[in-house]
Description:
Elements: E1 7-8, H1 11-21, E2 26-27, E3 46-53, H2 60-69, E4 74-81, H3 86-98, E5 102-105, H4 110-117, E6 122-125, H5 132-135, H6 140-147, E7 151-154, H7 158-167, E8 170-172, H8 178-185, H9 190-203, H10 209-212, H11 214-225
Parallel strand pairs: 1-2, 3-4, 3-6, 4-5, 6-7, 7-8
Amino acid sequence: xxxxxxxxxxxxxxxxxxxxxxxxxxxxxxxxxxxxxxxxxxxxxxxxxxxxxxxxxxxxxxxxxxxxxxxxxxxxxxxxxxxxxxxxxxxxxxxxxxxxxxxxxxxxxxxxxxxxxxxxxxxxxxxxxxxxxxxxxxxxxxxxxxxxxxxxxxxxxxxxxxxxxxxxxxxxxxxxxxxxxxxxxxxxxxxxxxxxxxxxxxxxxxxxxxxxxxxxxxxxxxxxxx
Length: 226
């Protein structure tokens, strides 16, 4: 509370700091740097991707089961950190049981990640509310998907839903259950996917680190000048 400046990663968390602790926070979203990329055309099958850390409370198996069981013509590739951990081994074993629609890959360096994601159609992130951080999450992978110019599929996570609907970037499942997530993928035809990709391109500059970090850079200049 005595700091000259404080920031957090979403509007809801900033509102709770004000209500519960009585101090104001700026908001700097956990955005990726801007990438100059073009959306790729949608193919015959929907190519879905998820990238990020393999943590058990994220329940990555929900996304895997949803895609494997959905009647949508879709595949899922996962690029997960934590290779060799017990949880990643569990996910690799699950992918083998689910069949060839789901594949677990080693992670790639972040500098290479967004161009890799650009070859997909949809970035997926369904994060059950296992704790407060997960419930209010607005993670970096959401912004990676925007920079990659792909559509987004999420669960009903408050902050992600707000950003997704503001820019019309993709679809929201009714719940965090695999059945509802799979159902949300069914309307994703080529026209809708291409529209979501265009909207990601439209939003990419505004949702980039260069733009999102501008307020804190200005505040730092003020503090250093003083």
